[in-house]
Amino acid sequence: MDSEPSSRMSEDGYSEYSRPKSKRKKTSKVWHELVEGRNEKGETIATCIHCKIALVADPNRGTSHLKRHLIESCPLRPVGLPLGEGGTSNREEEEFVFNMNDLRKEILLYIVEGAHPF
Fold first, then answer.
1. pTM of the complete model
2. pLDDT digits (tens, 9 = 90+) for 3-23
3. Which of 5, 33, 92, 107 would give a disulfide with 87, using CB separation of 3.0 to 4.6 Å?
């Protein structure tokens, strides 16, 4: 007998014990100024939004070389610009903090002032 748990297929065709791999969120500021993509060979690349140079973006290599490109070698990036501020990111999204009390107030205002029928 096999002592390891068996994976049973459910009605929807997915294994009961397997779970989909989740992709990690990119937290480095370099990604505000680089666009991830793939080249003709299928390798992951990062394209600079300033000079359009394609750099290797292998997940096992880290982001130091990408940061170095943006700070030291990118010919079209403004000198002295802080890392991550040369892109088109929305600062409000990064600074948003969820507050349940604010949400409750907004819901109450929506219901009371909106005269919604129940």
1. 0.55
2. 555 555 566 665 566 666 667
3. 33
